[in-house]
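Progress against Task 2.4 (sequence-to-structure conversion) is shown through the following example record, which the project officer requested during the mid-term review.
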Amino acid sequence: MMNNEEIAPHVKEIVRVLEGKVKEEDIRRDLDNYLDVYRMSLEASKRYIVRKYGGDPNALTSGNMKTLAQLGLNEGNVDILVRVMSSVTREITVSGMPKTIQSGVLADEAGTTVKFTLWEPSKIDLKAGENYLIRYAYTREWNGQPEIQLGNRAVVEQRPQEEVTVPEGVSVPSTGSYSAPQAVKVSELQDNMYNLIFTGRILSIQKREVDTRSGKKTLFSGIIADETGRVEFTAWEDFDLHEGEVITISNAYVKGWKGIPRISFGERSEITRPEGEFPTAEELSKEVRRTISDIESTGGAADVVVRGTVVDIKKGTGLIFRCPECRRVVLKGVCQIHGKVQQVPDLRIRVILDDGAAAMTAVMRKEVTEELLDITLKEALEEARETMNIEAIAKRFEDQLLAKPMELRGNVMSDEYGLSMNVKEAKFATIDVKSEAEALLARMEVI
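C-alpha coordinates generated for the chain above:
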Protein backbone atom coordinates (compact mmCIF):
# COMPACT_ATOMS: atom_id res chain seq x y z
CA MET A 1 0.00 0.00 0.00
CA MET A 2 1.33 3.43 -0.97
CA ASN A 3 1.30 6.22 1.60
CA ASN A 4 0.07 9.77 0.94
CA GLU A 5 3.53 11.10 0.14
CA GLU A 6 4.21 8.35 -2.39
CA ILE A 7 0.85 8.62 -4.14
CA ALA A 8 0.66 12.45 -4.29
CA PRO A 9 2.82 12.99 -7.43
CA HIS A 10 0.81 10.36 -9.33
CA VAL A 11 -2.48 12.03 -8.42
CA LYS A 12 -1.12 15.37 -9.59
CA GLU A 13 0.04 13.83 -12.85
CA ILE A 14 -3.42 12.45 -13.58
CA VAL A 15 -4.92 15.88 -12.79
CA ARG A 16 -2.47 17.41 -15.26
CA VAL A 17 -3.31 14.94 -18.02
CA LEU A 18 -7.05 15.52 -17.48
CA GLU A 19 -6.42 19.28 -17.55
CA GLY A 20 -8.05 19.81 -14.14
CA LYS A 21 -11.48 18.50 -15.20
CA VAL A 22 -11.56 16.09 -12.25
CA LYS A 23 -10.91 16.98 -8.61
CA GLU A 24 -7.82 15.66 -6.84
CA GLU A 25 -9.86 13.95 -4.11
CA ASP A 26 -11.87 11.99 -6.70
CA ILE A 27 -8.72 10.83 -8.47
CA ARG A 28 -7.09 9.87 -5.18
CA ARG A 29 -10.16 7.82 -4.20
CA ASP A 30 -10.16 6.05 -7.58
CA LEU A 31 -6.43 5.38 -7.44
CA ASP A 32 -6.63 3.96 -3.91
CA ASN A 33 -9.52 1.75 -5.01
CA TYR A 34 -7.73 0.29 -8.06
CA LEU A 35 -4.49 -0.25 -6.16
CA ASP A 36 -5.83 -1.67 -2.88
CA VAL A 37 -9.11 -3.32 -3.85
CA TYR A 38 -8.58 -4.52 -7.42
CA ARG A 39 -4.81 -4.97 -6.94
CA MET A 40 -4.02 -3.37 -10.28
CA SER A 41 -0.48 -2.11 -10.93
CA LEU A 42 0.19 1.59 -10.47
CA GLU A 43 0.72 2.28 -14.17
CA ALA A 44 -2.32 0.26 -15.24
CA SER A 45 -4.44 2.10 -12.63
CA LYS A 46 -3.29 5.49 -13.84
CA ARG A 47 -3.97 4.68 -17.47
CA TYR A 48 -7.42 3.25 -16.61
CA ILE A 49 -8.40 6.39 -14.65
CA VAL A 50 -7.25 8.73 -17.42
CA ARG A 51 -9.18 6.71 -20.02
CA LYS A 52 -12.26 6.61 -17.72
CA TYR A 53 -12.46 10.40 -17.64
CA GLY A 54 -11.86 10.84 -21.38
CA GLY A 55 -8.14 11.65 -21.29
CA ASP A 56 -5.21 10.35 -23.33
CA PRO A 57 -3.19 7.72 -21.40
CA ASN A 58 -0.23 8.36 -23.73
CA ALA A 59 0.15 11.76 -22.07
CA LEU A 60 1.26 10.07 -18.86
CA THR A 61 4.96 10.08 -18.01
CA SER A 62 7.32 7.14 -18.37
CA GLY A 63 6.28 5.61 -15.05
CA ASN A 64 9.18 6.96 -12.97
CA MET A 65 7.45 9.97 -11.41
CA LYS A 66 9.18 10.91 -8.15
CA THR A 67 9.33 13.58 -5.52
CA LEU A 68 12.70 15.25 -5.05
CA ALA A 69 13.16 13.48 -1.71
CA GLN A 70 12.83 10.11 -3.48
CA LEU A 71 15.67 10.75 -5.92
CA GLY A 72 18.67 8.44 -5.78
CA LEU A 73 22.29 9.35 -6.48
CA ASN A 74 22.55 7.84 -9.96
CA GLU A 75 19.15 7.41 -11.59
CA GLY A 76 17.99 7.60 -15.19
CA ASN A 77 14.68 8.54 -16.85
CA VAL A 78 13.23 10.36 -13.84
CA ASP A 79 10.04 12.47 -14.09
CA ILE A 80 9.51 15.33 -11.63
CA LEU A 81 7.01 18.17 -11.06
CA VAL A 82 8.89 21.18 -9.69
CA ARG A 83 9.26 24.94 -9.42
CA VAL A 84 12.48 26.67 -10.48
CA MET A 85 13.66 28.60 -7.43
CA SER A 86 16.76 30.12 -9.01
CA SER A 87 18.58 29.93 -12.33
CA VAL A 88 21.73 31.30 -13.94
CA THR A 89 23.44 30.81 -17.31
CA ARG A 90 27.21 30.46 -17.42
CA GLU A 91 30.10 29.24 -19.57
CA ILE A 92 32.20 26.19 -18.75
CA THR A 93 34.93 24.23 -20.54
CA VAL A 94 34.15 20.74 -21.87
CA SER A 95 37.00 18.84 -23.57
CA GLY A 96 38.81 22.12 -24.14
CA MET A 97 35.76 23.76 -25.72
CA PRO A 98 33.55 26.50 -24.23
CA LYS A 99 29.97 25.47 -23.50
CA THR A 100 27.01 27.44 -22.18
CA ILE A 101 24.88 25.72 -19.55
CA GLN A 102 22.11 26.71 -17.17
CA SER A 103 22.13 25.76 -13.50
CA GLY A 104 20.08 26.51 -10.43
CA VAL A 105 17.78 25.07 -7.78
CA LEU A 106 14.46 23.21 -8.07
CA ALA A 107 11.87 22.70 -5.31
CA ASP A 108 8.66 20.68 -4.93
CA GLU A 109 5.58 20.90 -2.72
CA ALA A 110 7.31 19.08 0.13
CA GLY A 111 9.86 21.89 0.31
CA THR A 112 12.73 19.65 -0.83
CA THR A 113 15.35 21.45 -2.91
CA VAL A 114 17.78 19.95 -5.44
CA LYS A 115 20.35 21.59 -7.70
CA PHE A 116 20.06 21.13 -11.45
CA THR A 117 22.16 21.52 -14.59
CA LEU A 118 20.60 22.04 -18.04
CA TRP A 119 23.10 21.11 -20.75
CA GLU A 120 21.21 22.48 -23.77
CA PRO A 121 19.73 25.86 -22.73
CA SER A 122 19.28 26.79 -26.41
CA LYS A 123 16.53 24.14 -26.60
CA ILE A 124 14.95 24.57 -23.15
CA ASP A 125 14.65 27.70 -21.01
CA LEU A 126 13.80 27.22 -17.34
CA LYS A 127 12.63 30.50 -15.79
CA ALA A 128 12.89 31.20 -12.07
CA GLY A 129 9.50 31.21 -10.36
CA GLU A 130 7.82 28.99 -12.97
CA ASN A 131 6.52 25.42 -12.60
CA TYR A 132 7.56 22.60 -14.92
CA LEU A 133 6.93 18.94 -15.51
CA ILE A 134 10.33 17.52 -16.42
CA ARG A 135 10.62 14.09 -18.04
CA TYR A 136 13.67 11.93 -18.74
CA ALA A 137 15.93 13.70 -16.28
CA TYR A 138 18.79 11.84 -14.62
CA THR A 139 20.76 12.34 -11.44
CA ARG A 140 24.43 12.43 -10.55
CA GLU A 141 26.08 12.47 -7.14
CA TRP A 142 27.75 15.62 -5.84
CA ASN A 143 29.06 15.73 -2.25
CA GLY A 144 26.85 12.79 -1.35
CA GLN A 145 23.66 14.42 -2.68
CA PRO A 146 21.76 13.92 -5.97
CA GLU A 147 21.86 16.66 -8.60
CA ILE A 148 19.41 16.70 -11.49
CA GLN A 149 20.90 16.67 -14.98
CA LEU A 150 18.86 17.61 -18.07
CA GLY A 151 20.40 16.37 -21.31
CA ASN A 152 19.32 15.97 -24.92
CA ARG A 153 16.48 13.57 -24.04
CA ALA A 154 14.87 15.84 -21.45
CA VAL A 155 11.30 16.96 -22.14
CA VAL A 156 10.03 20.04 -20.29
CA GLU A 157 6.42 21.22 -20.09
CA GLN A 158 5.48 24.45 -18.29
CA ARG A 159 2.66 23.92 -15.81
CA PRO A 160 0.17 26.29 -14.09
CA GLN A 161 1.31 28.13 -10.98
CA GLU A 162 -1.13 26.33 -8.68
CA GLU A 163 0.24 22.87 -9.51
CA VAL A 164 3.34 23.34 -7.33
CA THR A 165 2.91 25.29 -4.09
CA VAL A 166 6.31 25.53 -2.43
CA PRO A 167 6.12 26.16 1.35
CA GLU A 168 7.17 29.61 2.48
CA GLY A 169 10.65 29.99 3.95
CA VAL A 170 12.23 27.17 1.94
CA SER A 171 16.02 27.62 2.06
CA VAL A 172 17.55 27.67 -1.42
CA PRO A 173 21.09 26.21 -1.38
CA SER A 174 23.93 28.02 -3.09
CA THR A 175 24.91 26.63 -6.49
CA GLY A 176 28.23 28.42 -6.71
CA SER A 177 28.07 31.04 -9.43
CA TYR A 178 25.38 33.06 -7.70
CA SER A 179 26.71 32.57 -4.19
CA ALA A 180 28.78 35.20 -2.40
CA PRO A 181 32.29 35.65 -3.86
CA GLN A 182 34.82 33.38 -2.15
CA ALA A 183 38.54 34.14 -1.82
CA VAL A 184 40.55 30.92 -2.17
CA LYS A 185 44.09 29.54 -2.23
CA VAL A 186 45.36 26.84 -4.61
CA SER A 187 45.26 24.20 -1.85
CA GLU A 188 41.53 24.90 -1.32
CA LEU A 189 40.44 24.52 -4.95
CA GLN A 190 37.87 21.84 -5.74
CA ASP A 191 36.01 20.88 -8.89
CA ASN A 192 32.81 22.85 -9.62
CA MET A 193 33.64 25.85 -7.41
CA TYR A 194 32.33 29.14 -8.84
CA ASN A 195 32.42 32.88 -8.22
CA LEU A 196 35.95 32.71 -6.84
CA ILE A 197 38.47 35.43 -6.08
CA PHE A 198 42.00 34.20 -6.61
CA THR A 199 45.37 35.96 -6.48
CA GLY A 200 48.48 34.38 -7.96
CA ARG A 201 51.63 34.89 -10.01
CA ILE A 202 51.67 33.66 -13.61
CA LEU A 203 54.57 31.24 -14.02
CA SER A 204 53.93 30.41 -17.68
CA ILE A 205 51.47 31.33 -20.40
CA GLN A 206 50.84 30.38 -24.01
CA LYS A 207 48.27 31.27 -26.64
CA ARG A 208 46.38 28.79 -28.79
CA GLU A 209 43.34 28.60 -31.05
CA VAL A 210 40.38 26.25 -30.59
CA ASP A 211 37.35 25.56 -32.76
CA THR A 212 33.97 26.57 -31.33
CA ARG A 213 30.47 26.62 -32.78
CA SER A 214 30.88 30.30 -33.57
CA GLY A 215 34.26 29.76 -35.23
CA LYS A 216 37.87 29.85 -34.08
CA LYS A 217 38.60 31.37 -30.68
CA THR A 218 41.91 32.34 -29.09
CA LEU A 219 42.45 31.31 -25.51
CA PHE A 220 45.36 31.63 -23.11
CA SER A 221 46.54 28.89 -20.76
CA GLY A 222 49.42 28.25 -18.41
CA ILE A 223 50.42 27.85 -14.77
CA ILE A 224 49.56 30.26 -11.96
CA ALA A 225 50.67 29.87 -8.33
CA ASP A 226 50.42 31.16 -4.79
CA GLU A 227 52.27 30.12 -1.65
CA THR A 228 50.13 26.97 -1.28
CA GLY A 229 50.70 25.47 -4.72
CA ARG A 230 50.43 25.66 -8.50
CA VAL A 231 47.42 25.22 -10.77
CA GLU A 232 46.69 25.29 -14.49
CA PHE A 233 44.54 28.15 -15.78
CA THR A 234 42.58 28.96 -18.93
CA ALA A 235 41.56 32.49 -19.93
CA TRP A 236 38.78 32.58 -22.53
CA GLU A 237 39.35 36.27 -23.26
CA ASP A 238 42.47 38.35 -23.89
CA PHE A 239 43.23 40.07 -20.58
CA ASP A 240 46.74 41.08 -21.72
CA LEU A 241 48.33 38.63 -19.29
CA HIS A 242 52.11 38.36 -18.99
CA GLU A 243 54.44 35.77 -17.50
CA GLY A 244 55.72 36.79 -14.06
CA GLU A 245 52.96 39.27 -13.16
CA VAL A 246 50.66 38.99 -10.14
CA ILE A 247 46.94 39.15 -10.88
CA THR A 248 43.69 38.91 -8.96
CA ILE A 249 40.88 37.12 -10.79
CA SER A 250 37.31 37.89 -9.76
CA ASN A 251 34.48 35.53 -10.78
CA ALA A 252 36.75 32.63 -11.66
CA TYR A 253 35.53 29.04 -11.60
CA VAL A 254 37.08 25.58 -11.33
CA LYS A 255 36.54 22.77 -13.80
CA GLY A 256 38.80 19.88 -12.97
CA TRP A 257 40.01 16.81 -14.80
CA LYS A 258 40.01 13.58 -12.79
CA GLY A 259 40.05 15.61 -9.60
CA ILE A 260 42.93 17.90 -10.62
CA PRO A 261 41.56 21.46 -10.36
CA ARG A 262 41.96 23.99 -13.17
CA ILE A 263 41.01 27.65 -12.89
CA SER A 264 39.05 29.20 -15.76
CA PHE A 265 37.83 32.74 -16.37
CA GLY A 266 36.18 34.58 -19.25
CA GLU A 267 34.13 37.59 -20.26
CA ARG A 268 32.26 37.76 -16.94
CA SER A 269 35.53 37.84 -14.98
CA GLU A 270 37.57 40.85 -13.92
CA ILE A 271 41.38 41.04 -13.73
CA THR A 272 43.24 43.47 -11.48
CA ARG A 273 46.96 43.85 -10.71
CA PRO A 274 47.33 44.17 -6.91
CA GLU A 275 50.23 46.02 -5.32
CA GLY A 276 52.23 44.74 -2.39
CA GLU A 277 54.55 41.85 -1.56
CA PHE A 278 54.04 38.47 -3.18
CA PRO A 279 56.35 35.42 -3.43
CA THR A 280 58.71 35.45 -6.40
CA ALA A 281 58.43 33.06 -9.35
CA GLU A 282 61.50 31.21 -8.07
CA GLU A 283 59.93 30.74 -4.63
CA LEU A 284 56.65 29.58 -6.14
CA SER A 285 58.42 27.03 -8.35
CA LYS A 286 59.78 25.09 -5.37
CA GLU A 287 58.19 21.81 -4.36
CA VAL A 288 54.88 21.93 -2.52
CA ARG A 289 54.32 19.27 0.14
CA ARG A 290 50.83 17.94 0.86
CA THR A 291 49.49 15.08 2.93
CA ILE A 292 47.42 12.41 1.22
CA SER A 293 44.40 13.12 3.43
CA ASP A 294 44.66 16.84 2.57
CA ILE A 295 44.62 16.03 -1.15
CA GLU A 296 41.77 13.58 -0.58
CA SER A 297 39.65 16.38 0.90
CA THR A 298 39.96 18.52 -2.24
CA GLY A 299 39.78 15.69 -4.79
CA GLY A 300 43.21 16.00 -6.45
CA ALA A 301 46.28 18.20 -6.87
CA ALA A 302 48.84 19.28 -9.45
CA ASP A 303 52.60 19.00 -9.01
CA VAL A 304 52.80 18.13 -5.31
CA VAL A 305 55.23 16.17 -3.15
CA VAL A 306 53.86 13.42 -0.94
CA ARG A 307 55.76 11.41 1.65
CA GLY A 308 54.79 7.97 2.94
CA THR A 309 55.66 4.30 3.17
CA VAL A 310 55.16 1.69 0.46
CA VAL A 311 52.70 -0.79 2.00
CA ASP A 312 51.79 -2.87 -1.06
CA ILE A 313 53.15 -3.71 -4.52
CA LYS A 314 50.38 -3.76 -7.14
CA LYS A 315 50.04 -6.26 -9.96
CA GLY A 316 51.67 -4.95 -13.13
CA THR A 317 54.89 -3.87 -11.42
CA GLY A 318 58.14 -4.87 -13.10
CA LEU A 319 58.76 -5.87 -16.73
CA ILE A 320 55.57 -5.45 -18.78
CA PHE A 321 54.68 -5.45 -22.49
CA ARG A 322 52.51 -2.91 -24.29
CA CYS A 323 50.54 -2.64 -27.51
CA PRO A 324 52.46 -0.44 -30.01
CA GLU A 325 49.19 1.20 -31.09
CA CYS A 326 47.31 2.10 -27.90
CA ARG A 327 50.04 1.51 -25.28
CA ARG A 328 47.78 -0.78 -23.24
CA VAL A 329 49.42 -3.63 -21.35
CA VAL A 330 49.09 -6.85 -23.37
CA LEU A 331 48.86 -10.46 -22.20
CA LYS A 332 50.77 -13.06 -24.22
CA GLY A 333 51.03 -10.60 -27.10
CA VAL A 334 47.26 -10.01 -27.33
CA CYS A 335 45.81 -6.50 -26.98
CA GLN A 336 42.17 -6.16 -25.93
CA ILE A 337 41.66 -3.58 -28.69
CA HIS A 338 44.04 -4.54 -31.51
CA GLY A 339 44.31 -8.32 -31.05
CA LYS A 340 47.64 -10.04 -31.76
CA VAL A 341 50.39 -7.40 -31.85
CA GLN A 342 54.18 -7.07 -31.87
CA GLN A 343 54.44 -6.27 -28.17
CA VAL A 344 56.78 -3.54 -26.88
CA PRO A 345 58.69 -4.06 -23.58
CA ASP A 346 58.44 -1.49 -20.80
CA LEU A 347 59.18 -0.99 -17.09
CA ARG A 348 56.65 0.20 -14.53
CA ILE A 349 56.08 0.46 -10.78
CA ARG A 350 52.63 0.46 -9.17
CA VAL A 351 52.52 0.72 -5.39
CA ILE A 352 50.31 1.82 -2.52
CA LEU A 353 51.83 4.70 -0.54
CA ASP A 354 50.52 5.28 3.00
CA ASP A 355 51.41 8.35 5.07
CA GLY A 356 49.84 7.09 8.29
CA ALA A 357 46.52 8.89 7.80
CA ALA A 358 45.53 8.00 4.22
CA ALA A 359 46.79 6.05 1.22
CA MET A 360 46.98 6.37 -2.56
CA THR A 361 48.17 4.45 -5.60
CA ALA A 362 51.41 5.67 -7.21
CA VAL A 363 52.40 4.80 -10.78
CA MET A 364 56.00 5.28 -12.00
CA ARG A 365 56.84 5.00 -15.69
CA LYS A 366 60.04 3.65 -17.20
CA GLU A 367 62.25 6.71 -16.78
CA VAL A 368 61.34 7.16 -13.12
CA THR A 369 61.67 3.42 -12.46
CA GLU A 370 65.11 3.20 -14.07
CA GLU A 371 66.48 6.12 -12.06
CA LEU A 372 64.93 5.03 -8.75
CA LEU A 373 66.02 1.37 -8.84
CA ASP A 374 69.20 1.81 -10.88
CA ILE A 375 68.18 -0.59 -13.64
CA THR A 376 67.59 -0.09 -17.37
CA LEU A 377 64.97 -1.71 -19.53
CA LYS A 378 67.75 -3.49 -21.44
CA GLU A 379 69.18 -4.93 -18.22
CA ALA A 380 65.74 -6.07 -17.08
CA LEU A 381 65.17 -7.87 -20.40
CA GLU A 382 68.57 -9.59 -20.19
CA GLU A 383 67.89 -10.68 -16.61
CA ALA A 384 64.47 -12.07 -17.61
CA ARG A 385 66.04 -14.03 -20.51
CA GLU A 386 68.76 -15.46 -18.25
CA THR A 387 66.33 -16.60 -15.57
CA MET A 388 63.55 -17.46 -18.06
CA ASN A 389 61.24 -15.78 -15.54
CA ILE A 390 59.68 -12.34 -16.08
CA GLU A 391 58.24 -12.43 -12.56
CA ALA A 392 61.79 -12.34 -11.18
CA ILE A 393 61.95 -8.62 -12.04
CA ALA A 394 58.71 -7.97 -10.15
CA LYS A 395 60.09 -9.88 -7.14
CA ARG A 396 63.30 -7.85 -7.26
CA PHE A 397 61.30 -4.59 -7.34
CA GLU A 398 59.19 -5.78 -4.41
CA ASP A 399 62.29 -6.49 -2.31
CA GLN A 400 63.61 -3.00 -3.06
CA LEU A 401 60.37 -1.11 -2.46
CA LEU A 402 58.15 -2.80 0.12
CA ALA A 403 58.06 -1.10 3.55
CA LYS A 404 60.42 1.64 2.33
CA PRO A 405 59.72 5.34 3.08
CA MET A 406 59.52 7.41 -0.11
CA GLU A 407 58.97 10.92 -1.42
CA LEU A 408 57.01 11.16 -4.66
CA ARG A 409 56.29 14.18 -6.84
CA GLY A 410 53.58 14.42 -9.48
CA ASN A 411 49.90 15.04 -10.26
CA VAL A 412 47.33 13.32 -8.06
CA MET A 413 44.07 12.30 -9.75
CA SER A 414 40.91 10.84 -8.26
CA ASP A 415 38.20 8.50 -9.52
CA GLU A 416 35.87 5.85 -8.12
CA TYR A 417 38.93 3.82 -7.08
CA GLY A 418 40.48 6.63 -5.01
CA LEU A 419 43.61 8.76 -5.39
CA SER A 420 46.36 7.96 -7.89
CA MET A 421 49.61 9.83 -8.52
CA ASN A 422 51.32 9.90 -11.90
CA VAL A 423 54.86 10.14 -10.53
CA LYS A 424 57.35 12.50 -12.17
CA GLU A 425 60.08 12.23 -9.55
CA ALA A 426 60.71 9.58 -6.89
CA LYS A 427 63.31 9.01 -4.21
CA PHE A 428 63.76 6.97 -1.06
CA ALA A 429 63.23 9.14 2.00
CA THR A 430 65.67 9.32 4.89
CA ILE A 431 63.93 9.23 8.24
CA ASP A 432 65.18 11.84 10.71
CA VAL A 433 64.51 9.87 13.89
CA LYS A 434 65.12 12.84 16.20
CA SER A 435 62.75 15.13 14.32
CA GLU A 436 60.11 12.41 14.07
CA ALA A 437 60.31 11.78 17.82
CA GLU A 438 60.09 15.49 18.64
CA ALA A 439 57.04 15.87 16.38
CA LEU A 440 55.38 12.84 18.04
CA LEU A 441 56.03 14.20 21.51
CA ALA A 442 54.64 17.60 20.51
CA ARG A 443 51.43 15.97 19.28
CA MET A 444 51.13 13.95 22.50
CA GLU A 445 51.51 17.11 24.59
CA VAL A 446 48.67 18.76 22.65
CA ILE A 447 46.44 15.74 23.25
